[in-house]
Amino acid sequence: MTNYKFPDGFYWGGATAAYQCEGAWREDGKGFAVADLLTAGTRREPRKFEPDLSKGCYYPAEVAIDHYHRYKEDIALFAEMGFKMYRMSISWARIYPNGDDEEPNQKGLDFYRDVFEECRKYNIEPLVSLSHHDIPYALALKQDGWLSRETIDAYVKYCKTVFDEYKDIVKYWITFNEINMTMNYFGDIFGGGILSNNTTTIDINNAPEEAFTKEKQNKRFKALHHQFLASALAVKLGHETNPEFKIGCMIASDAHYPYSCNPANILAAQNSMRKIWYCGDVQVRGEYAPFTKKYLSDKGVELEVSEEDKKILKEGKVDFYSFSYYTSGTDCVDQEVDTDSGNFNLGAANPYLKKSDWGWGFDPDGLRWVLNEIYGRYKIPLIIAENGLGAIDKVGEDGVVHDKYRIEYLKEHAKAMKQAIDDGVDLIGYTWWGPIDLVSASTGEMKKRYGFIYVDKDNEGNGTLNRSRKDSFYYYKKLIESNGECLGEE
Ligand code: BG6
Question: Which of 28, 316, 408, 483 is the least buried, fewest Cβ under 10 Å from its Cβ?
């Protein structure tokens, strides 16, 4: 029988992001983040970027799940499940409301100190993302977000403030959430803050053709280069601030398979994986991958990387690789195969996989596969910073959500993780995405729930915001308590 016991000290936990859970979007001196200004959408109706508040749209980020006021209750529930790690993000605009103010906002600094102290009270290790999709809106207006090199200085100043402030209480940091998001057209809003690209919708299933002009693509890759430099400078600064700091990258790393053994499909899948390696090589190895020139020229992109830039990248290599994994994609060039009704936005439908309510494939073996691929390439510790199932939950007559499907997702992915560890992968942590229901990034819905903890709030913002435990809450608790061993029970 397989032994599912995980290594001692394994960091089981959960992950959230400021603009998806905090709410209090203007409270205590906070400025707007670009992502705050996204309206609610659905699976079919894309979210819109609407900075004109006078139009009276509904913005899910305004209240979100009100974690800002309820963090003590939420962290107590995480502790009850036995969390060893809590991944969360600092909202840059809560610390520097305009992104580049002279002085930081003391109330913002106090809030995060309180959150970290609350975690420490329960021996929960904070894992802190410095930027999770949310560049300050004022900086996007002033500097076109990450397109401007000056944004690097503002970010490094913000990092210095929080590193100095929390050096005694936070050890694990992530410089940018899903940095490869900036390559996507909706990355103009999520993270990139490139307002001049005039992207107004988040449509993860159907990218509009006009979003991929050479000019727009050039801006994205330039902005991404600036983020790489900012990340490397932050890593260097962090290590100078406290040599004990562990600072990682975070890259969306879903698996990509060839649809068939047609060699053209194999090459297509290889190319899709380059969306991951493009960022990983820079952040882990400190240099662009050999395929970069061709990869960029195929997109009509010319990127200038100076000798000074190369030096910065070399000096700011990360200590660990963290990533999000939800599903896998299938690459297919065969004309007769329909690639529109596929998995998420990842190509042709995979006939071997079940799909979630939002069409994302259920693929635990894919997780084992990417863990092996990533570790084989970089050989540094790995953290799964996001993985989870967004589903429609129904509260039963007994007032409880009986989410067998989420337990199954968790179980199978946890088994795959242990198999990868047995394969030789140095996996040190797992933070389930959205241990408490929160606002979906891609659709802005509450209905797309990931939580082990149910939050009483609907898509229109109605509800008491009360928290309650789902069945999965007790399963995760057992999984953590047994350090994985219970996976072998049936
Ligand atoms: C990741 C993001 O892309 O996926 C999270 O880092 C996001 O912010 C998560 O919430 C799940 O996606 P969604 O669209 O279902 O919320």
Answer: 28
- Identify the burial level of 454 via C-beta atoms within 10 angstroms of its C-beta, where 0-12 means exposed, 13-18 middle and 19 or more buried: buried
* Residues with Cβ within 8 Å of residue 406, at least 6 apart in sequence: 389, 391, 452, 470, 472
Counting from 1 in the atom list of ligand 1, the atom nearest the Cα of 390 is: 15
Cα(371)–Cα(392) distance, rounded to whole angstroms? 28
- Ligand 1 probe mutation, 324, 358, 383, most atoms within 8 A of CB: 324
Q: Which two tokens stand for residue 75?
A: 């962290």
pLDDT in tens, 194-244: 999 999 888 877 788 889 999 999 999 999 999 999 999 999 999 999 999
Residue-wise pLDDT tens digits, 15-49: 999 999 999 999 999 999 999 999 999 888 899 99
Alpha-carbon gap, residue 382 to 275, rounded angstroms: 18
Between vectors from CA 175 to CA 194 and to CA 205, what angle results, nearest 5°?
Answer: 50
Q: Tokens 């009509």 identify what position?
A: 300
Which pair of structure tokens corresponds to residue 223? 């902005």
